[in-house]
Design the sequence.
């Protein structure tokens, strides 16, 4: 038995890291689907209704949710999946715009705080406090203010996405910019490197892993912000409107709501995947980095 386990472990180790990761994700998804269907089967056979009633309205079969995607939204209309994919492009546009703006603001705040302890002490409490205000309370105000100054609806929604994006980026940027070894900073200063060179050639490269970790969190937050922002904005073209419409029809069309949730999750996964691809491009593996001393000498010399 031990030999069999060792052989299986050896086969798993022979797989590439990406293959192992994909198989792990597929395993988690299949486990969740199996748990959903087993709950429905067991609770239905025993007549249990708590904690969740296992009928086809509250808990439809997973395959029914998927099949619903390939049925018309309404009689004579487009397939639900086509309608949701078009809506996802609108929501993704709002999320990406907010993600970029919020990321830049967060990075700027991180740089400001690492440069000035006074600014950090003065503004950090307000940055933290901003995240304690419920987004549902802020979204209507942003929409109203945006309309008052002539801001297009989708840009007002992007502002809400930016609001949820900037905080993790600011905190992780600050932590990352402070992550270089003090000896490395001293070496840069011994080469008479100016603060700008220290920032861009030592601190920012060291902070990239922290920043991209925050960006992956912020990518999902931007999608959530866009979905929430579409509701008070009365935006008709996004996924948020579809969620609201189908939630009002839950008693008779619950499968449409579940199918929409699946598409929302897929959009979030796609967005995080794009950020992960950028991370692989801009954050080199440890083993491919230059020796620290040589890298710093080249950087301080402008090479």
Sequence:
């Amino acid at each position: 038995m031990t030999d069999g386990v060792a052989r299986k472990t050896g086969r798993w180790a022979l797989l590439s890291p990406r293959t192992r990761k994909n198989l792990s994700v597929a395993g988690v998804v299949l486990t969740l689907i199996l748990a959903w269907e087993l709950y429905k089967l067991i609770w239905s056979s025993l007549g249990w209704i708590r904690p969740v009633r296992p009928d086809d309205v509250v808990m439809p079969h997973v395959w029914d949710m998927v099949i619903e995607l390939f049925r018309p939204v309404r009689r004579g209309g487009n397939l639900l999946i086509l309608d949701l994919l078009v809506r996802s492009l609108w929501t993704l546009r709002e999320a990406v715009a907010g993600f970029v703006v919020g990321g830049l603001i967060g990075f700027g705040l991180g740089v400001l705080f690492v440069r000035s302890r006074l600014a950090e002490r003065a503004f950090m409490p307000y940055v933290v406090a901003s995240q304690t205000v419920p987004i549902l309370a802020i979204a209507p105000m942003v929409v109203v203010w945006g309309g008052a100054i002539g801001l297009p609806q989708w840009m007002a929604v992007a502002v809400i996405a930016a609001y949820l994006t900037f905080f993790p980026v600011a905190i992780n940027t600050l932590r990352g910019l402070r992550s270089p070894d003090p000896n490395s900073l001293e070496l840069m200063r011994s080469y008479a490197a100016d603060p700008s060179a220290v920032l861009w050639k030592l601190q920012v490269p060291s902070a990239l892993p922290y920043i991209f970790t925050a960006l992956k969190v912020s990518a999902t937050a931007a999608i959530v912000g866009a979905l929430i922002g579409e509701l008070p904005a009365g935006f008709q073209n996004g996924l948020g409107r579809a969620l609201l419409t189908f939630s009002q029809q839950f008693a008779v069309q619950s499968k449409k709501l579940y199918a929409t949730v699946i598409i929302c999750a897929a959009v979030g996964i796609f967005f995080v995947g794009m950020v992960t691809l950028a991370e692989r491009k801009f954050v080199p593996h440890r083993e491919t980095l230059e020796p620290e001393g040589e890298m710093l000498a080249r950087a301080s010399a402008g090479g």
